[in-house]
Specification:
four-stranded antiparallel β-sheet; globular; 38% helix; binds magnesium ion; binds adenosine-5'-diphosphate; 9 helices; ABC_transporter-like_ATP-bd; alpha/beta; six-stranded mixed β-sheet
Length: 247
């Protein structure tokens, strides 16, 4: 459901940790509804890239334009806070608040940061939990849920903020194999609703099926990108060929 409307442009993004340049002059753009999958070896900078996109990590240089709003390392914290509310992120570790119920986990941020009413927050939590198939767990605590269920709640929690884009960093990597599918299904359903998504994953069948574009990163660079067919079936760069062969 990708459109031609660009919503995110990343220009010359670099990130250094001390002398270690982890992202090197990365530029790309994402259109509304596009599903972008990022693949690449461990340590290639995938997580840092996602963290820079939502300013969990401040880039060393470069600019992000999101829906017309320009962000750079000099942006004020107030601007960044507003920006972050529009970007949902799901991590490998589910990071639910252990002392809060599923409902409280989902409604906390909308109540505090968006200022929605309690009844609005509740109605939205119901809808989201229905979508991820967990309405019956609304009053459960995270410890009562399987890893797959916790991750589905984490996705619902991110969606409760009504983000315009969702970032996933190896959302299924910490799960037992038999629980991976239920989380990928929720992500697939979300893609079909037209959500713009950037997904770091090792699930190559999922990437083939769901993505509009695959980006291969290595050593802080975008080495190659294209449709899943192009990148998986006929990669051009030696580093991509070696990586795909090893899968
Ligand atoms: P990937 O997600 O592709 O495995 P990362 O973005 O996690 O890669 O890491 C890329 C490089 O950046 C690695 O060399 C890692 O050690 C380094 N790095 C990541 N985060 C930090 C940090 N907070 N401080 C110092 N180095 C970091
Ligand atoms: Mg990572």
């Amino acid at each position: 459901m990708k459109s031609n409307e660009v919503i995110l442009t990343i220009s010359h993004l670099s990130k250094k940790f001390g002398e270690n340049e982890v992202l090197k002059d990365i530029s790309t753009s994402v259109t509304k509804g596009e599903v972008v999958v990022i693949i690449g070896p461990s340590g290639s900078g995938k997580s840092t890239f996602l963290r820079c996109i939502n300013y969990l990590e401040v880039p060393t240089s470069g600019e992000i334009n999101f829906e017309g709003q320009v962000l750079n390392p000099k942006s004020k914290e107030k601007v960044l806070d507003l920006y972050r509310t529009k970007i949902g992120m799901v991590f490998q570790s589910f990071n639910l608040f252990p002392h809060l119920t599923v409902l409280e986990n989902i409604t906390l941020a909308p109540l505090e940061a968006l200022g929605v009413t309690k009844s609005e927050a509740l109605a939205r939590a119901h809808e989201l939990l229905k979508n991820v198939g967990l309405l019956e767990k609304i009053n459960a605590y995270p410890r009562d849920l399987s890893g797959g269920q916790q991750q589905r709640v984490a996705i619902a929690r991110a969606l409760a903020m009504k983000p315009d884009i969702m970032l996933f960093d190896e959302a299924t990597s910490a799960l037992d194999p038999e629980l991976v599918g239920e989380v990928l299904k929720v992500m697939k359903d979300l893609a079909h609703t037209g959500m713009t998504m950037i997904i770091v994953t090792h699930e190559m069948d999922f990437a083939r099926e769901v993505s509009d574009r695959v980006i291969f990163m290595d050593k802080g660079l975008i080495v190659e990108q294209g449709t899943p067919q192009e990148v998986f079936n006929s990669p051009k760069e030696k580093r991509t060929i070696d990586f795909i062969r090893r899968l």
